[in-house]
Amino acid sequence: MCPVKINAGIIIMKGLTKYFEYQISGFLIFVFFLSVVGCKKEDETEKKINQIELDVEVHRFDREFATAQPNDIPTLKSRYPYLFPAQFPDSIWEAKLRDTLQIELSDEVDNAFGDFKQETRQLESLFKHISYYFPKAKTPKIITLISDVRYEDRIILTDSLLLVGLDNYLGQEHRFYQSIPRYVAQGLNKEYLASDIASAFTKKVLKFPRNRTFLSRMVHYGKELYLKDILLPENTDAQKINYTEEEIEWAQANEERIWRYFVERELLYSTESSLDRRFLDPAPFSKFQLVLDSESPGRLGRYMGWQIVRAYMEKNPKVQLVDLLDMPADELFKNSNYKPKR
Questions:
Q1: Rounded distance, CA 15 to CA 11, Å?
Q2: What single string gives the DSSP state of each residue in 71-103?
Q3: Can you tell me the distance from the alpha carbon of 178 to that of 66, in angstroms, rounded to the nearest whole number?
Q4: Would you kindly state where each structural domain of the chain is located, as residue ranges?
Q5: Which of 22, 103, 202, 274 could disulfide-link 224, Cβ–Cβ 3.0 to 4.6 Å?
Q6: What tens digit of pLDDT does each residue of 286-327 get?
Q7: Among the listed residues 165, 268, 170, 255, the one whose alpha carbon sits nearest the alpha carbon of residue 216
């Protein structure tokens, strides 16, 4: 072979290598610049949020009741009339003061939460974020109580009150939860407390869609979870969707597989109500009717809706939050260019 041609080829290859190295380094610098700008903007927003002055009141009714005497009942009733239905005489509450289960529940809550300072900081952060993004929202008075493990009503949020049943957050293996289905008991852990309160708030600002398609419902829950991205920036994805770490890892690892299943079976625009039970409602696992069912966490349709909304906001970062919440699912999906992670 001709040495001149070899040398020329080497020179060309070196030149091309340098060219591509220059192009790649320039691209990486550009990506780094965008990430720095994005982080700086987020830091500035968080700084503004942290500077908000907010009076978060936490009233430990659970402790007040636990240390009360029968002659304290009238005072408690005057301070917390909404916790004492008028049809029940004082004798009922006096008996409850002596009830061994009530006393045991109070002791267990004290062991789990102590002075509640850490949770109070989390709730202050949550309501500061709510105040920043939803200025018209009022910060409610927070009342902690013992609810006799009524886990379906563990969080009640009105315009002025937030009732938190602390006995529903003692940990999934607690002996009080042994008769509760395991997939329900899994969420009865204090690491999900702020997430449950955020969920109660999102239901006040996010209307359930009239559109009956599976896609519409997926995106609805996706918006709810995206709101948690905004309102609970320090929470993990697992905490936001009330998964274990193993469950969120499974969802992330199988995202493409789940999406392919939905698309190949033409489920996105289906109005079959059974899809809610299979992929959106709380359940021990999602129902693909395949071998993988037993491996999967429940509510995977919500997880997929979340990824669609995230993809849309990554592509359209200037869209206002209020506009996102009102956006029809079809429009959001088309403009998200969603592609599952491999």
A1: 6
A2: GGHHHHHHH-GGGS-TTS-HHHHHHHHH-HHHH
A3: 24
A4: 58-205, 214-334
A5: 202
A6: 999 988 788 999 999 999 999 999 999 999 999 999 999 999
A7: 268
How far apart (Å, rounded) are the C-alpha atoms in residues 31 and 29?
6
Q: What is the mean pLDDT of each run of 10 residues along the chain (342 residues)?
A: 40 41 44 48 86 92 97 96 95 96 96 96 97 95 96 96 98 96 96 98 95 97 98 98 97 96 97 96 94 91 98 96 96 97 76
List, as one string, the DSSP characters of 143-206.
Answer: EEE--SS-GGGSEEE-SSEEEEEGGG-B-TT-GGGTTS-HHHHTT-BGGGHHHHHHHHHHHHHS
Query: Distance between CA 123 and CA 121 in Å, rounded?
Result: 5
CA pair distance 118, 134, nearest whole angstrom = 24
- Asked whether the beta carbons of 279 and 227 are under 8 A apart, the reply is no
Integer Cα distance of 157 and 140 in angstroms: 8
